Amino acid sequence: MHTLTDDCSGITAGKWVSFGNVGSADGRFHVTSHLEASYPSISSDAAYSLAGSCLLMEVTDAGNQCLPSWEVFPCKVKLDSGNWMSFRIDNGSIRARRVADGTTTDSGSTAYSATNHRWLRIRESGGMTYWETSADGVVWNSFHRITNPFPVVALRVEIAAGNWAAEPSASTARFDNINLPPSGVDATGPAGAAGTVKELQNHRHVPPAMRATFIQPMAVSGYPNFPTVDWTQAQYERNFALMTSVGIDTVCVQFTVDRDAGEAYYPSAMWPQRSNMVELILNAAEKTGVKVWVGLANTWWWEENGQPGDYAWLTCQLADDKACAEDLDALYGDCIHGWYIPNEVGDQQLANAAYIDPMKWFYGEITAYLHGNFGRKPVMSSPSYFNLTLDGPTYAAKLREVMPDVDVVAVQDGGGYDYISASDIHYWFTHLRNEFRGTSTALWHNADMFSASANTPMPPGRLQDNLQATCGLVAGYTGFSFISQMGPDTVGTDAYWAAYGQYAATYVSHLA
C-alpha cells in the first residue's frame, strides 16, 4: 500500500474515484460537506495490500470541529462497507475506528491536536494493525493496535468527511502527502524509530557529548546510588531542567520493577507498588521536553549461578519482562520513547560458551516481543566489559552474536573502575564499531561518571577524555548517571555540573 503515493496536486483519473464535493487546490486534496447528511470521499481505483505496509498522510485541516455531526476519516483502508479501519476526527477528539463484520468499535479516544496529530499512519506488521501519529512525519507515536480484524491483502484507500445530520454550514477538510513523508524518511518504518535509532544509525560522527542519562531506581542512599523512587515531581523537574541545560534531553529509567525487593515503581497488576516514580518522571519529562525510555523487570546479579545458561530461569525472567511491558504500555504507551532491557551482559558471561545460545534466545525473544506488540519502539541494552576476560575483537563478536536484533547497544566503558584508561576505551570501541558497522544496531557509548576507588563523581577532565576517546566511533552518548554523579541536588555541589556544562557548550549547538 505504501507504493500508492500522491502529492495531492490533482485528483488523477484512473488512480482515484471521487464522490460528492471533493477536489484539489493549493496542492492539497479537499473534501467539503453538503448541508444535508452526506459523506463526500476520494477512493483509490485499485486495491492494495496493507500486509507489511502502511498508509500515511498529512491532515493539514480537520475542518470545523464545532459542528456536532461533522466527521473526518483520514487513512481509511477498506475491504468492503462492513470491514474497514480508519482514524476518526470529530468534536475535538481523535480515535481509532474499525468496522468488522458490520460491528463498529472506536478506541483510544483523546483530544485532537492539529499539531501533534498532523501526520497519521495505519501500518501492518506480523498480523497486527497499528494506528500511529506524528507531529512532523518523522518521529511516530503509537496510538492503538489490534490483531488484524479481517484480511488486509486487498484494500482500497479512502479519504472521507461529512455530516451524519443536516448542518447550518459546510466544512472542509484538507489532506496532503499521501505516503510521502518528509524527504529521506521511510514511510513504513516503526513508530518511534525515525529520529531516534534510524537517525543515529546514519549519523556515526556525533559530537562527544551526552544526550542521555540513566535513572537507577534506588530506595536507599549509598554510593554510587541516591534514593530517587520517592522523589516528588518537582525534584525530577528541577533535575531535568539542569540536564537539558547541558544538552542531556533523554532519560532511561533503568528498571521499573525490582524483582528482588518485590516492588514496582508504577501501578502494577503483578507487583506491589512502592511509589509511582514512572508517572512522575513522565509528567516531569513532558514539562521539560525530555524523552523517556523505560526499563523492565530487574534482578540484581542475574548473571550469577549459571542463570545466563539456564533456559528455565530465563523463561521466568522473560515472562516477568513481558508482564512489565504490558503494564507500562497500557498505562503510558504514548509517552514511552523506547524500551530498556535491564539484564545487562558482561564479558564474563560472553566468555562462557554454554551461555551464548541461551542468552541469544533470551535477548531475541524479549526484543521481538517488544517490537511486535508495542509499535516497534526501539529497544536498548547496556552491556559491560569490566572484567577484561576477552580481547576487543572477541568481545565485540560475541556481543553481536548475542544481541543481533537490539536497536541500541549502549556499551558501558568501564572507566569508573579506575583501571581502564581513555586509550583502553578507544581500543574496545574501535573493535565494537568494526563489528556493528553496517548492521541495523546503533552503537552508543555509555560513559561511567564515577570513580569507584574514591567513592566520588569522576573528575570532569577524565570524563571528558573518556568521551573524546570514542569520537567518530559511536552513534550516541549516554552516561551513568547525571542524578547520582553530576546533579547538584544529590552530589551537594554544582562543580561537576558546571564543569561539564562548560565542556558541553562546545557541542550543544550541534546536538539538535
What are the salient characteristics of this protein?
alpha/beta; about 500 residues; TIM Barrel; Jelly Rolls; 2 domains; seven-stranded antiparallel beta sheet
Question: What can you see in these coordinates?
Answer:
The protein is built from twelve helices and 27 strands. It is an alpha/beta fold and 512 residues long. The protein has two domains: 16-176, Sandwich (Jelly Rolls), CATH 2.60.120; 197-506, Glycosidases (TIM Barrel, Alpha-Beta Barrel), CATH 3.20.20. An eight-stranded parallel barrel has the order 15-16-19-21-22-23-24-27, surrounded by four helices. It has a seven-stranded antiparallel beta sheet with strand order 1-4-13-6-7-8-9, with no helix packed on it. Strand 25 (450-451) and strand 26 (456-457) form a beta hairpin. The protein is elongated and about 80 Å long. Residues 191-204 have low confidence and may be disordered.
